[in-house]
Write a structure and sequence with these properties.
Layout (H helix, E strand, L loop, with lengths): L1 E3 L5 H7 L5 H13 L6 E7 L5 E8 L2 E6 L5 H11 L3 E4 L9 E9 L14 E3 L4 H10 L10 H13 L5 E6 L2 E11 L3 E9 L8 H12 L4 E6 L5 H6 L2 E10 L2
Parallel strand pairs: 4-5, 10-11
Antiparallel strand pairs: 1-2, 2-3, 3-4, 5-12, 6-11, 6-12, 7-8, 8-9, 9-10
């Protein structure tokens, strides 16, 4: 049975979220950031006849992340998804045969960064950037596989996560302009998902993106770190940063 999570089911959800994978990290980040008191962040668990949690989901506005296990009743999840509706669905397997899926590669950091790299000459690092400048950098780098939310949406979500310790970032700037960045799009006490890796087009091929990723990974040293990438792009870059291909992800958009 799929059940809406209230305070009585919160321990069951948290136990499931001890799984160290990308989906548990995203759900756990929303839970740590917003708790159960915001109407736009909802949480669900699937409970079997023995009372064990066999899956979990988070619905952030209309975007759903689904954590499945080998014991999950996928037919029940399909019915639930058809009933509740969604704008996007992220999961670890082909789940909805009637909808096309975008698939990609999950990478995991397997070669931890043992020391903080030296900042590139002429650039100043910060982990507390001015958020409008950071968003402007992201926007300058926007591409087909690098979507950037509206500024108001980015500001509300990212600033909230920074205040609650569920996001981190490393930014390089020069002459008062942000030039390169890496940030976490999800973060818990034990896991993190890196995203928003970008370098201004005028400053590429100088190692700035590599520095940002490696420095952020050093900050996240006690966590299992994941990222999601296009299966046809950026493989060499992230392998150089210490990541290894470990799984696939699937995104559905009705």
């Amino acid at each position: 049975m799929i059940r809406f999570v209230d305070t009585s089911l919160l321990p069951l959800l948290r136990q499931r979220l001890t799984d160290r994978n990308l989906y548990a990290c995203r759900i756990g980040c929303w839970l740590d950031s917003y708790g159960l008191s915001y109407p736009f962040a909802e949480f669900y668990v699937q409970v079997n006849a023995q009372g064990h949690c066999t899956g979990a989901a988070a619905r952030y506005y209309q975007d759903i992340t689904l954590l499945l296990t080998d014991e999950s009743d996928t037919d029940e999840w399909r019915s639930w998804l058809n009933l509740i509706g969604f704008r996007s669905l992220l999961c670890d397997r082909p789940l909805l045969p009637t909808l096309p899926a975008e698939d990609g590669t999950v990478m995991t950091l397997t070669q931890p960064v043992l020391s903080v790299p030296v900042p590139p000459k002429g650039f100043t690092p910060t982990n507390q950037p001015e958020l409008k400048a950071l968003w402007t950098l992201l926007k300058r780098c926007e591409a087909e596989d690098f979507a950037v939310p509206a500024y108001e949406d980015f500001l509300l979500d990212f600033s909230h996560k920074l205040r609650h310790g569920t996001a981190s970032c490393c930014v390089l700037f020069s002459h008062n302009q942000s030039c390169a960045a890496a940030l976490t799009v999800a973060q818990t006490a034990h896991t993190a998902v890196i995203g928003g890796v970008c370098t201004d087009p005028h400053h590429r091929r100088q190692g700035l993106g590599t520095w940002c990723v490696q420095t952020l990974c050093h900050v996240l040293a006690d966590r299992t770190v994941f990222l999601m990438r296009d299966p046809c792009r950026h493989s060499h870059f992230y392998h150089q940063c210490g990541f290894t291909n470990t799984a696939r992800f699937y995104i559905y958009r009705p």
